[in-house]
Amino acid sequence: MENLQIVGQRIPKIDALDKVTGRAKYIQDVKIPGMLYGKILYSKYAHAQIVHIDTSKAEKLTGVRAVLTGDQIPPVKFGFFKDNSPLKAGKVRSYRDEVAVVAATDPDIALEALDLIEVTYSPLPGVFDPEEAMKEGAPLIHEGNKNNVLKLPWKLICGDVEEARKASDFIAQDRFKVTWVTHCCMGTSGCIADFDLRNNLTFYSTTQIPSLAQKDFLEFLKGLGLPNSKVRIIQTSIGGGFGSKLDTYAFEYLAILLAQKTRQPVKMLFDRKEEFTATSTRQPAIIDISQGCTKGGKLTFRDITMILDNGAYTSWGATTPSVMMMPISSLYKVPNVRYIAKCVYTNNTYSQAMRGYGNPQATFAIESQIDGLAEQAGIDPFEFRQINCNEPGEVSPQGYKIGTCGLKECLNAVSQELGWKEKKGQGKKRGVGLASLIHVGGGARVYKSDGCGTIIKMDDYGWVDVITGATEIGQGSDTVIAQIVAEELGVRIEDVNIVNNDTDVCPWDVGVHASRTTFVAGNSARGAALKIKEQILNLAAPALEAEVKDLELKDRKVLVKGSPDRFLPLDKVLRKAHYSNQGQMLMADYFYDPENENLDRDFKGNLSMAYAYGAHGVEVEVDEGTGKVKILNYVAAHDVGRAINPMLLEGQVYGGVTMGVGYALTEQLILNKGEIMNPNFRDYKMLTCKDRIPIKAIVVETDEPSGPFGAKGIGEPGCVPTAPAIANAIYDAIGVRIKDLPITPEKIVAALKQKKGA
Amino acid sequence: MQLNGHPLETQVEPHWTLLEFLRDHLGLTGTKEGCGGGECGACTVLVNGKAVNSCLFPVLEAQGSQVFTVEGLMSPEGTLHPLQEAFINHGAVQCGFCTPGMLLSAKALLDENPHPTEEDIRSALAGNFCRCTGYAQIVQAVQSLGVYEEKTVSVMPRGEEE
């Protein structure tokens, strides 16, 4: 590969300077003159008729500028299924249902006003278990529907599972359960809506999808009778994303409604309790899975049916089966696959995207069971995975064209680093476990476009403005994009200014999801950089008396290759172009849309340009008395194509694994008849600094031809195989298999008791 | 009180927290509110050298005290504090919302114990939550500033060695 100067370096994150000095402005920190504060009144019941709302006392409170209820707003719907509305009229379907909203001059006054709103409910029977909700006669969540099952056709059939089942020598059959967990962004959700006198909306936001949010809000304004209003989204610094800002939400629509009504800017800011109770979770699921293999350990089929608790409304959680299909069809070579998923309305909280988007759930079931199947076949789990390992160049049953694939290298690296052979079955309540992953690594065509645009302009001094559609949520897209551009243009990282937060300026991008930003926005930035590079070389060639093909950009110079004394300073070339007759400023734009495919009606197609693979291995020690699991060693090997910035990449792996360990062992939102019982950090157990996990991140580079400088995505994979790797290690240590997450000490002690009793 | 080394005299409402005072009345928004309940540490500031959750700390209690926030970390000449440098250079910052509080907890530790072990660091930062980093690079950043005792084991998050 070429001799790279900046790509591949451990360059500090560009915005870190503002963040360590307290200068970075988050939504919490933004104030606009005349700004009002909105607060939401939520339902007191999981399921009830709203009989009457009296807002008169609240309206009279000094400082209150507006009070709205569901009956007072146009009947506009939002969400993937258009089954949600900013304020509920007539009926509430979950505890997080918005019943009324207040705008006041001070947040405390707004809260006081909420206490003065009197709502009379008539409670209805609720349903909180998706299997119960599927039964005949179950309370209907959305009147007008025949039953609670969503009309979503999640069904993938590849080959003939029934024939393969008959031909299998070993078959494993299990039921796994995964529950609600939540993003726990350290910065809570918020926004500011501000209309100008022409009814154009400026919306300060922490969204992960500026272009799609703009579209949602335009549609909403149309519903409010404002078809000619424009929407400008300005993103502040974002205090964590992880999928939690991948949709548009009631609180955002309420800010818009209040701003429209009061003609003043309105800020909505969640407190921590709201962040737990009124943002959407990871998708919970009940997973029935069977897999078979031959005596030699070759997988013959994988058969999965799933029931997803959709909650009361529909966001992206209901579409996670489209991503679950990825590991189900394409993790290891498995010729026959059947997957059927049903999403069912209940009176619980509704779920959405969260790092991995269904993949951690499906991989937990698949990889836990692979160990069970390997045991039946009498084959070491590491060997079993090697036998079925994906390889470069294969086409998976779902139609994924696997290009680069470093799974074998990842498995080998993990086995070696962990000391698999020596540690497996070592006894002393210690055990090791493995699990692998596949994820999209080259974008994911889940929307009509998977594109991202970039504009680059250069000034008289050789400085570079890169205006990108990509969103920065802490993952480091600002830095990675700057590295790619600096590399191509032969400038320093500090010469590059990234503009990435304003839809009035930035080109379209589908959003920061699917681990796609380094790949898609990186390719887009590189495309624009190559265009502007060509312009520069063309300008410099005559002056250097050289052919364009013999020139290169390096050290802020245009150089004749091989003749170090023949060069022009870059800024001089730019000034000469600018200040000559009919001068020119250098600008270039590039829109990159990967050649990946939307899944067809049968859910087949090449969803991504490249696939990211990885393997995790973990050694645990289990205290049989208390059920406590201690992680002694954790190895995470990832095929990333190429590490553009190893330091930021390792940060993604450490963060992903830690979130995955929480998913495996400690985290759960506890719902009691639809009510979240632990909406705080004391009772929701996110890992802290004290929970030391010794993680070794191993980077496997396979140099993906379609990636920018060979890179594939890495944002999500770190938390995908964590839970099954840990579950497998626990089994190796103490011989009990926990099939529902999180694997709490209580569950371990109970399982041990049952094992001893049996 | 002395705020970031400067004397400050002003009227306050008795019900204000130190966090409210700093953010809403002085416009020092570097200190963040993550939970408002003393659980997450995002609002950590130093009062007389001790790390406190400013969201729970009544502003009146700070009367006559030395209060130190993230805005005071940089030297008046504009040089970054070594902890700020270390956080930047070790990848300890992602979304950055926990960073100001994390820096001040780390400062309180190093001021009292310039040679902390990994265990000391992890204890000192246990009240500061971070969802992005998995803490590895944060611990590494703090470690990079101290000299370690021989007995400290595996102080580097593995895989971080350059």
How many domains make up the coordinates of chain B? 2
User: Average pLDDT value of chain A?
Assistant: 97
Overall structural domain count of chain A: 3
CATH architecture of the largest domain in chain B: Orthogonal Bundle
- Per DSSP E runs of 2 or more residues, the count of β-strands of chain A stands at 28
Q: Could you estimate the helical fraction of the residues of chain A in percent?
A: 25-40%
Low-confidence stretches of chain B: 148-162
Characterise this structure.
The longest helix of chain A has 28 residues, at 517-544. Chain A folds into 3 domains: 16-23 and 451-592, Aldehyde Oxidoreductase, domain 4, CATH 3.30.365.10; 31-124 and 189-269, Aldehyde oxidase/xanthine dehydrogenase, a/b hammerhead (Aldehyde Oxidoreductase, domain 3, Alpha-Beta Complex), CATH 3.90.1170; 285-445 and 599-757, Aldehyde oxidase/xanthine dehydrogenase, molybdopterin binding domain (Aldehyde Oxidoreductase, domain 4, 2-Layer Sandwich), CATH 3.30.365.10. The mean pLDDT of chain A is 97. With 758 residues, chain A is an alpha+beta fold. Chain A contains 19 helices and 28 strands. Chain A starts with 15 loop residues before the first helix and ends with a helix. In chain A, α9 runs parallel beside α10, α14 runs parallel beside α15 (517-544) and α17 (646-666) crosses α18. Helix content of chain A is 28%, strand content 24%. Chain B has a 5-stranded mixed β-sheet, with helices on one face. Chain B is 28% helix and 9% strand. Chain B has helices at 18-25, 82-89, 99-112, 118-124, 136-143, and strands spanning 2-3, 6-7, 44-47, 50-53, 66-68. In chain B, α2 (82-89) crosses α5. Chains A and B meet through α1, α17 and β28 of A and α2, α3, α4 and α5 of B.
